């Protein structure tokens, strides 16, 4: 009497997926999904940390703005407005009869404004302006870093006085009458308040979070993906999924930056033109957009490459089996 076959217990195992590999495959899947989800915020946090904490990098990033026509026009207008708010024409107007003073003040105001704007424009469009721009931006950024990373309350301002001083020197050097005008009319610079002293404390928490997350998130994303690929029983399939996840993550990051750009341009103060805001936003976020494009490109390259490698490997196995028969 033939012995009966031993009874099989448990649910049937999926083809090609041994039961002993299921916990490993589940852990690999979790790690890869987490790595793909972390990729966009990791790129964003790394970009923000670099721009907010590294003055040299920020200065290098914003350097091209000194040659942007929209930024130059906006700067000429902003500085001219700031200077005119501080121009004291009393020494010139008070010498005239009282009845003529309003007309003289209006005429002098218009003439001085055009004169000041011309000199400011000459400085802003000069060859030496990029170095002055970098110095002003570097000083402002260093002041911002100091205020956000230390205790106490201090106002963070963009001081444009160096530009005004350069215009005064240019005026006195190129226009003889300008020297006399400077002596008779008090002209001071202008400052733009970036953070009031009471706002600095509110931004210290987000600043510290960006510094920490900008360092940890990229490392965590890379480690999750690397560990997931090493643990995956089917690495080729895992690489295909990871590539698709990266492609989606890159697209989402670019979409988020586009939405942020639209919002930023809609809430610009009246003193900043839309063209200037667009130039500044695009310049500051250029590396973040490049990161999103790179993430998507790597994903769209890795997924098809892994799939094609699998197809070719399958054909080679099929040919070997045919020869073996």
From TrEMBL:
The keyword Transmembrane helix applies. Keywords: Membrane, Transmembrane, Transmembrane helix. Residues 1-22 are annotated as: Disordered. It comes from the Bacteria. The chain crosses the membrane at residues 213-232, 244-264, 293-313. Residues 1-18 have a biased composition (Low complexity). This is Integral membrane protein.
